[in-house]
Write a structure and sequence with these properties.
This protein has helices at residues 5-16, 26-40, 54-60, 139-151, 156-160, 172-186, 191-204, 212-217, 220-226, 233-250, 259-263, 270-280, 291-299, 308-316, 326-337, 350-353; strands at residues 92-95, 104-107, 113-115, 122-125, 131-134, 364-378, 385-398, 401-403, 408-409. The protein has 410 residues and is α+β, with helices and mostly antiparallel strands. The two termini are 46 Å apart.
Length: 410
Amino acid sequence: MKTSRVARETALIAANSPISASRQTRSQLTATIHAFAAENVVNVAIKQEEQVNDDSSSLSSLSSPGVSDIEDALVSSAPRKRKREVGSPAATVMISPLRGPILKSEDVSPAKIKRGRRQPAKKIITDTGEVAIHPPANWEEIYTAVQEMRKQVLAPVDTMGCESLAEDNRSPQDQRFQTLIALMLSSQTKDTTTALAIRRLQTSLPAPGLTLPNILSVTPAALNALIHPVGFHNNKTKYIKATATLLAERFNNDIPDTAEGLMSLPGVGPKMAYLCMSAAWGRTEGIGVDVHVHRITNLWGWHKTREPEETRKALQAWLPREKWHEINHLLVGFGQTICLPVGRRCGDCVLSTKGLCPGAVAPKNVSVVKRKRKMEVEGEGGGEVKEEVDVVVKQETEDVVEDARGYSSR
């Protein structure tokens, strides 16, 4: 059975070391081998390279004596092959040990996480028997904190959102049509992909570009090829062609000016309809609730809903009407930058450090440790060659999360 070089040399050290025949624990055996290895370290030839430039000088300055490992006492038993000219003597390969000093350490120590307590909206029956909805107790503090965080970072929706994709040099009617097409393409698609698809329609279709007559005249195959990167492009091609026909036949070549009319179009639901009413017609008649708004408001404990339409009705029952339009843009950007669907950055969120978010999770504390190894090749006909090898070790530990009552958990 073949054994590795390290195993053979370790066995050789153990055979020549003064280890007693009595049984030893693993820690005792390791200590004995390390002691023997330390005595033989002096036999390893570690050549110090003279520095000829600033780069090699900075590298050598990072190396300093440290605690030796068992492999530090071992010299390569089989010289490595190196290309050489005919007649030149074989080169000798020496590998300096993995020496103790840590070259670089990056520690990520997120702020202490405090999990908040759920404070949902409450239904209150008044003296007259009417049902009144009282908003969550801390909703204004949460809303203001998110507004401040959003000012500090630019999200994709800020520059490539559907509201900003219509061309400024087009007529208001064409701009409304482009906004509707952008919203139809945005379903299950990232903002960057939607923006590229809209731009392709604006520039690839015959002049003047993305207009209702051009969508009516383009073939389904050509339209599908232009919007191919977006999600569910085959279905969206059918919806866009059918919508264009309805706009020409029933809505006087314009988009409907009511949410109900927009929702009568193929592939247009409440979210698209209310967002389109705000962006295209400048009238806010409802909250556009997408996956970000639905997910984040449930994380905050404002309500417990199963689908976006249920979330829309719950929010509209108590959220001030002047915030109906902006909450979608606010929370979409927040969900793109901090409260991500996967890998939420709770350590960077003010709500987590203030104990305002019941859904806060503790990020893992990751330490990245790098060490350097140097390989030196000596011999005639080639000089000396040096190579650096970085060994990366990751250690992950979970931080403690403290809830609103002061209890800690991992």
